Amino acid sequence: MRVVAVLAAAAAVALVWPVRGRAPRPPGGSSRGPAVAPVLVVAAAGAGAGLLVLADGTRLALGLVSLGALGGAGLLVRRGRAARAATVRQAVVVDVCEALAGELRAGQPPAAGLEHCRELWPDLEPVVAAARLGADVPAALRRLAAVRGAEGLAEVASAWQVSERSGAGLAAALGQVALTARERQGTRRLVQGELASAQATARLVAVLPVASLAMSTGVGGDPWHFLLGTPVGVGCLGLGALFALAGLLWIDRIAATVLRA
Fold it and tell me: Which residues form the Type II secretion system protein GspF domain (predicted)?
């Protein structure tokens, strides 16, 4: 059994080793670095073969449940970080709109105003380059608006496009866009405050079973042996973790839907 596990691990290493170098340069493009996906697939295959050989059914199931729980926790952490980054980006977009409107009211040309706004948000560089080269600035703004949290730039792009086609003043239009964006940001913060209590309650409910297990251990029970050492217990553990993760993701989805609306 152990010989088979060693052979599986050796095969994984042998397959991983050739792809650790730099990936081939695509035609007409630049190199994209090492090929990570094949390495992960082969390593996972080797590890899975070793687990199948060395572990019995209960331990293997417990390991899969643990990996699933870690993956779910990582997914929740990534979603939380992405949501916080989007909130910060929304605030920066509002500041950029107000700053650009102020620059135009002060008599600055649009390209120079964008140059100054780039100091507030370096991600505005593609739009600044488009304005400097005389390219399609509204299209560059809409491309940047596709980033989560920067959706407000689509309204800036519309105002810019209307000003270019009609000759109307861009400063007044951007001033109205900035005012609307600031009001929308205040409403969004109010909604986030209302949703925070529901999200905190959901997280509390998700960790309550752990507290119950600790209390049961304190009064002389042995729930951990059932959950970690028996097939039925491991099944209950996996099902409970799945329900907890689904509930947290469901609450986050509801919150995201409300904020988008």
Answer: 97-215
